[in-house]
Design goal:
The protein is α+β, with helices and mostly antiparallel strands. It has 2 helices and 22 strands. It folds into 2 domains: 2-80 and 237-271, no CATH class; 88-232, no CATH class. The chain is 22% helix and 31% strand. The radius of gyration is 28 Å and the shape is elongated.
Length: 274
């Protein structure tokens, strides 16, 4: 019965993690580029009560007797399915259709990756337009350098066009669109599930994910397409998450009931001597 107490306790801990994960998904239902998570569980070691042997009469007993010792959280996986495309009033907003990620240079000078294309045109210290995130981090181009429109004057940021391949164009005085030498970079990964989530909608490269593969320079990749004026919504489905939350809550209650039942059985056993 003591074993049942500990097994039920591990179940309660595991379901608490499950509820925490579901609650985090629901809280980010409106976060641009957010990728939902799901908790995975693993059974703990089993204790062998009786090994395969023969009975007292010599009859073979081919099966053994094992009892489980509970459960634990084995991993929390990121689900990188495509989110819904949402129209945006920002002309610098960009959504990815495909498996790619935008490259962002963070405050430490490292390149991190995101599906959040809620960008803006900022003016850097040299007075040039720079494509950046709302936090001010520069967006990387296909040449692994920040996209800074140098050598071009008289550009109005709201007139800048980003085509499906990430190329940046601007209108001349006569209205004709001019192609610049700048292009938004998009990267893919051999194992997208191995990326490390580092907060918000940002991911970092790990040994498990493999190196970032530049779509502009890597062969045999299915290219992603970009859509200006749109954002990718979170891939969180509220109805599914609410059902999962109910299931997790019921599992938590069942484990709690198992502890209560074990406690009552121990009380009964202790009262037998009276």
């Amino acid at each position: 019965m003591v074993r049942s107490l500990w097994s039920a306790a591990t179940g309660m801990n595991a379901q608490q993690t499950n509820v925490d994960t579901i609650a985090n998904n629901l809280s980010n239902v409106n976060t641009v580029g957010y990728k939902s998570q799901v908790a995975q569980f693993k059974s703990l070691l089993y204790q062998t009560l009786q090994s395969p042997a023969t009975t007292a009469n010599g009859d073979p007993k081919p099966t053994n007797s094992q009892v489980g010792l509970g459960v634990r959280t084995s991993s929390i996986n990121n689900l990188h399915s495509q989110g819904a495309r949402i129209a945006s009033h920002s002309p610098s907003a960009v959504a990815i259709d495909g498996a790619g990620f935008f490259g962002i240079r963070n405050a430490s000078g490292e390149t991190v990756y995101t599906r959040n294309g809620d960008f803006t045109w900022a003016i850097n210290a040299a007075g040039n337009l720079m494509l950046s995130t709302s936090e001010g981090y520069p967006v990387m181009g296909t040449n692994n350098a920040p996209i800074v429109l140098t050598g071009i004057t008289g550009i109005v940021s709201s007139d800048i066009v980003i085509d499906g391949n990430g190329r940046i164009l601007y209108p001349r005085a006569d209205g004709e669109m001019v192609l610049t030498n700048f292009r938004i970079g998009v990267w893919q990964f051999a194992n997208v599930g191995g990326l490390e989530r580092i907060g918000s909608s940002l991911f970092a490269v790990t040994d498990a994910s493999g190196a970032a593969l530049n779509e502009a320079t890597t062969a045999n990749l299915r290219r992603s397409s970009l859509h200006q004026g749109y954002l990718e919504g979170a891939n969180v489905y509220v109805a599914d998450e609410m059902v999962n939350l109910i299931v997790a809550q019921r599992a938590y209650e069942l484990n709690s009931r198992a502890i209560t039942t074990s406690d009552e059985m121990m009380q009964t056993a202790n009262s037998l001597k009276r």
